[in-house]
Design a protein that fits this description.
This is Germin-like protein. With about 220 residues, the chain is an alpha+beta fold. It has 4 helices and 10 strands.
């Protein structure tokens, strides 16, 4: 009986239907070697013996971002480009500052879910579900409140108050990416053909011409 059970186990291990994956990171860390010419999905690891505390450190998130812009907001991202030690760890964060009536406009993170915590002030936040429902899930948040934006969905944050607001966001990627909807659609380089956008938005081409002529700023740094 013992021999039969052993044969069954060995066959199961050898079967192409058996699925397996790494349980997690295979090393303590993989600090990004940004000087390496090798291109991989992420960054090549530095020699662990060359790693030091600065590779895991960022200073200045206590300083407000400059909200003196048309959006009245500023996103200070702390991702793998700021902390090399985040490489392969699947996390990053950001500080978002809002002037009164400041907006972090509709955008998506193609590689990350976002968890937002309001530190100061009050924000109206929301995300839109995918087709065909396109439901708006929205809520007013106050200091200490937490809200989740699922990966890839369009979302926004708006300061409805007369005072500044501050939020911290955690993201489930070392490099979440940001696609600001208006910038991508109307500020692409080169421009999307106006006839395509006119048909997509069901408006006159003159409206598209006007929108494409605007300055579409980026509030991320």
């Amino acid at each position: 009986m013992a021999s039969a059970m052993l044969i069954i186990v060995l066959l199961a291990i050898a079967s192409p239907l058996v699925l397996a994956s790494d349980p997690g990171s295979l090393q303590d860390f993989c600090v990004a070697d940004k000087a390496s010419p090798v291109l991989v999905n992420g960054f090549v690891c530095k020699n662990p013996m060359d790693v030091n505390a600065e590779d895991f450190f960022f200073s200045g998130l206590n300083k407000p971002g400059n909200t003196n812009n048309r959006l009245g907001s500023n996103v200070t991202a702390v991702d793998v480009k700021k902390i090399a030690g985040l490489n392969t760890l699947g996390i990053s964060l950001a500080r978002i500052d809002f002037a009164p009536y400041g907006l972090n406009p509709p955008h998506t993170h193609p590689r990350a879910t976002e968890v937002l915590t309001v530190i100061e002030g009050s924000l109206l936040v929301g995300f839109v579900t995918s087709n065909p429902q396109n439901r708006l899930i929205s809520k007013v948040l106050n200091a200490g409140d937490v809200f989740v934006f699922p990966e890839g969905l369009i979302h926004f944050q708006f300061n409805r108050g007369h005072k500044n607001a501050v939020a911290l966001a955690g993201l489930s990627s070392q490099n979440p990416g940001v696609i600001t909807v208006a910038n991508a659609v109307f500020g692409s380089n080169p421009k999307i053909d106006e006839s395509i956008l006119a048909k997509a938005f069901q408006v006159d081409k003159k409206v598209i011409d006007y929108l494409q002529s605007q300055f579409w700023m980026d509030n991320n740094n």
